[in-house]
Structures are given as structure tokens and as C-alpha cells.
Write a structure and sequence with these properties.
This protein is α+β, with helices and mostly antiparallel strands. It has two domains: about 1-60, 2,3-Dihydroxybiphenyl 1,2-Dioxygenase, domain 1 (Roll); about 75-130. The protein is built from two helices and eight strands, in the order βαββββαβββ. The longest helix has 12 residues, at about 80-90. The radius of gyration is 16 Å and the shape is globular. It starts with a strand and ends in a 7-residue tail after the last strand.
Length: about 130
């Protein structure tokens, strides 16, 4: 298993994108056609930072307006993916599947607590889906 990406929800999408692109050195790259605006920023050919436009305004008294939405781990298709699903079921941990639009990627989301989400993602090759 390896870390796949981090998603940041931000009320200033373009400024956040410029920071990661111009200061950090990531490259703006292709992104599936999700229903919410955003950017995928790439390092070494991989999208590692996913930026999403905040759809709910931050509270004026909030200490931090941008937030980390979730952490994601890439899981090998087949046995490793099935073992993950089996471990979740064995621990009676609820999860939700999703598919990335216009791609062959499958996602599995686990809400650990309110506001804490972990995503696991795999390719939908033969034997990947559980």
C-alpha cells in the first residue's frame, strides 16, 4: 500500500493552485470531469494534490478555512483489494464505493469519524472489484 493523494478543499481555488504550481513546483494536469471545480496537481507524472473548490463558505470565526478533506491510499487490484474489503467487513466498518468518472478507477471511502475520511483507490482490472 502507498499514499495516493491528498485532497484540499479551499475557498480560493486559483490562489491555492498557484501556490502548489508556482511555489511548490507541481504541475497542473488532467482531471476527471467531476461535478465540482478543482485541479489535480502532479509530481513525477502522478496527481498527488487534488484541489476542490469549497462549496460551503467558511465560518468567519473559523481558525482555518481551507481543510484537508481526506487522505487516499493506492491499493493493488486483485488480492490486496479483496483483502482490504474483507478486513473492513470483518471489523464491521461501513464503507462506500464510488467510481472516478471517465476512468478505470474504483474508490472505497471510510468515514472514521465526523470529518475524517480515508479513501482507498484501485484500478478496475480483472479481479479488482469486490
Amino acid at each position: 500500500m502507498e499514499l495516493d493523494h491528498v485532497t484540499l478543499v479551499t475557498p480560493d481555488l486559483e490562489a491555492t493552485c498557484r501556490f502548489f504550481r508556482d511555489i511548490v513546483g507541481l504541475e497542473d494536469g488532467p482531471r476527471p470531469p467531476f461535478r465540482v471545480d478543482g485541479h489535480w496537481l502532479y509530481a513525477h507524472g502522478r496527481p498527488v494534490i487534488h484541489l476542490i473548490d469549497a462549496t460551503v463558505p467558511a465560518q468567519p470565526a473559523a481558525l482555518v478555512a481551507p481543510r484537508i478533506d481526506h487522505v487516499a491510499f493506492r491499493v493493488a487490484p486483485g488480492d490486496e483489494w479483496r483483502a482490504l474489503v474483507q478486513r473492513l467487513a470483518a471489523h464491521r466498518m461501513p464503507y462506500q464505493f464510488a467510481e472516478v468518472p471517465a476512468s478505470a478507477q474504483r474508490q472505497l471511502f471510510v468515514a472514521l469519524a465526523q470529518g475524517i475520511v480515508v479513501e482507498f483507490v484501485t484500478s478496475m482490472t480483472a479481479g479488482a472489484a469486490a
